[in-house]
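To whoever is on call:

I kicked off a structure prediction for a single chain this morning and the downstream step that reads the tokens threw a length-mismatch warning. I double-checked the sequence; it's 119 residues and nothing unusual in it as far as I can see. Pasting both halves so you can look.
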Amino acid sequence: METAARATTENYDYHYLCTDLRQKRMIPIITRIRKHSAKEFGDLVRHHGEEFISVIEGAIEVHTEFYDPVRIEEGQGIYIDSTMGHAYVTADGCDEAVVLGVCSSADEGLMDSLINLHG
């Protein structure tokens, strides 16, 4: 992860992987999740495409605008439509969690739109 592009937000620490490859349609990201509730997280996130998240360490709770929250344990994953509002928070009993996410889109500007989410 030494060569990863890093971004830190109120909710997450992002490590964007394979940033030297331009115009890719899949963006791999290692993310450290620190918030413990949807209320603490704030507004749900939306962006183009779809994403798959797999929990590497800890456990998370996935909040979306259309479905009930889902707990995802270490070694499990979830696939969602990223245009639906979503937030990942730590599950009860976890201080932090680490996930591997892969965002994909036919939109060639996906990497820029993801980075612009961070301000």
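Update from on-call: the warning came from a stale cache, not from the record. Cleared it. Sanity check on the structure: The first helix runs from residue 38 to 41.
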